[in-house]
Design brief:
Elements: H1 3-15, H2 27-39, H3 49-63, H4 66-78, H5 83-91, H6 94-97, H7 99-115, H8 133-145, H9 148-152, H10 160-176, H11 184-198, H12 202-214, H13 219-233, H14 235-244, H15 246-251
């Protein structure tokens, strides 16, 4: 198939319709966009439609491009992802992009769910006990990242040297990583994409690439995830992420 034929095939899989021909106010732009994303990018690398769509909604949540996020929530459902898997992908953005932006993404997601007749709220995915948040979070964080964060910020004044690393352990690794419906391998891969999409977080991209490799992702899968995210975040941020961790990816082949 040529890329125009591939675009039609992939667009039908994701959205159940046909790509733009000459409709709308800017059909030329839409043809460029759709043929690049759905006729080229979606066909390179090992990742399947399900993981690609989780990557897409992650970047769209980071960028706060909410109309496109709602459309791709529909695509997630069309390729067989459950509402619970979609929700977890959006929820886990909070420690990195903050709660307000995550709430915006949740609102767009829920609108898409409502349009499909999905009842809200969804069933609970909580597993963590309040009294063991730190210990449980540390049991997930430490085997992958060690004590690096606590050591790096030991210089902070007063209680901040203990509280800020503890917040990371409890919020990111206890409150979110312990939730059901996404495994650790998927969560770590999406964290790499999220950090790359933010821009200016290359040190954290490096750290989470190491983490993603340690929990079972391959270098090819990480590069494929970033390549798939490229149309949604642009070349500069993808190149920055790749350049920041070149030796890590080479070593992870």
């Amino acid at each position: 198939m040529n890329r125009i034929e591939r675009t039609e095939e992939k667009f039908k899989e994701l959205f159940g319709g046909r790509p733009v021909q000459n409709e709308g106010t800017d059909p030329e732009f839409m043809r460029i966009l759709q043929r690049f994303i759905f006729g080229e990018v979606c066909y390179v690398g090992s990742l399947d439609n399900r993981l690609r769509e989780l990557i897409t909604i992650t970047v769209l949540a980071v960028n706060q491009t909410l109309p496109q996020l709602a459309a791709h929530v529909g695509a997630c459902l069309n390729v067989g992802l459950s509402p619970l898997e979609i929700r977890e992908t959006i929820y886990q953005c909070a420690p990195l992009i903050g709660f307000p932006k995550t709430l915006n993404a949740i609102a767009a997601m829920n609108e898409a769910f409502a349009s499909k007749g999905i009842s809200l709220p969804l069933e609970s995915a909580e597993t963590i006990a309040e009294e063991t948040r730190y210990e449980t979070g540390l049991s997930i964080q430490s085997p992958v990242y060690g004590e690096e964060i606590a050591e790096r910020y030991a210089w902070l004044p007063g209680n901040f040297s203990k509280e800020i690393p503890k917040w990371l352990t409890e919020l990111c690794f206890a409150d979110f990583f312990t939730r059901k419906n996404l495994d650790g391998k998927t969560r770590e891969l999406l964290m790499v994409v999220m950090l790359a999409a933010m821009g200016g977080a290359e040190a954290q991209v490096r750290s989470h690439m190491i983490g993603a490799l340690r929990v079972g992702n391959t270098a090819e899968e990480i590069v494929c995830a970033l390549a798939h995210a490229l149309p949604y975040m642009g070349f500069p941020r993808v190149f920055n992420a790749l350049n920041s961790a070149k030796e890590i990816l080479i070593g992870g082949k």
